[in-house]
Model the fold of this input.
Amino acid sequence: MSNILSAGSPAPDFSLHVTPDQRLSLNELRGKPVILAFYPADWSPVCGDQMALYNEILPEFQKFGAILVGVSVDGVWCHEAFAKDRHLQFPLAADFEPKGEVARAYGAYRSEVGVCERALFLIDQKGVIDWSYLSPIAINPGADGILEALENLPKKEKP
Amino acid sequence: MSKLSIAVNEDDHIQGNPTAEYSLVEYGDYECPYCGAAYPIVKRLQKHFGKRLSFVFRNFPLAQIHPWAEPAAEVAEFAGAHGKFWEMHDLLFENQLGLDEALFMNLANDLDLSTSQLQTAIANHTYRARVLADFAGGARSGVNGTPTFFVNGWRHNGSFDFDSLSESIQLARSLSR
Done:
């Protein structure tokens, strides 16, 4: 398994396509907690696959003012079809060209198979990684870790 | 490992003895085909473990992909408020492919529940808060799709076929220590 970036590291900036004509940069989201969810591929078969699940849990994330971004190496058109099919209400970023560059920067790329790891990062308001988690590839990690990290975030703000 | 954030309690719908050796909690969605497939497996597990197993069902409707899941959960809770949760739970899964308001009324009728009261409950979303509370508790517990099972409070990460679940249940005692 990969060595993903851990708490305390600055979150590497990126600018990735989220629609065929729109890019999203991490910098733009400064000031809000950002959840980055790297995942292997769109169109996973089980009910409530990770992204569809986070879509349902989105209101819980939003209670903390957090922004969720999904990242995989799938292209924008694939993301678009997937998001439309699952009614996703959050952006999916395409780490497509150069393939997996952002995932590599976060230590969350599986080069032997050419997909992202199933890895979660919570980035704080200042752009620093507050919490990260690498899940076994076949196990959907759910959202409990993210919710707990979000709950703990304000406590850490006050030194 | 993810753990149930809300322990089994008296507000739960439970089959079997709450102090049974093994506790199985399912977070499920009445419209999810995988939950439909798990439904007879749970019955088999209950038969297999008998009095040693208790079973709790909590709602986790994936409303964005299953438009009838949340209303169905409310219907089950309505039936539960009238002492017929499990009867309705079973009928909903047995009629999973035909979920709609007409079916809800027919099922209520079959269970001698008042259809006019059910209509009012659906219109006023009387049981929505309960369903959403189940959902939020599930999210906090690491529910990662439907169905998600917890055995003695720990999330079962394997598949939900009979063998994997019964193995998980048998191992539960050593895990909970």
Notes: Helices of chain A lie at 50-62, 76-86, 101-105, 144-157. The interface with chain B takes residues 46-50, 52-53, 55-57, 60, 86-89, 139-145, 147 of chain A (CB under 8 Å). Chain A has a mean pLDDT of 94.
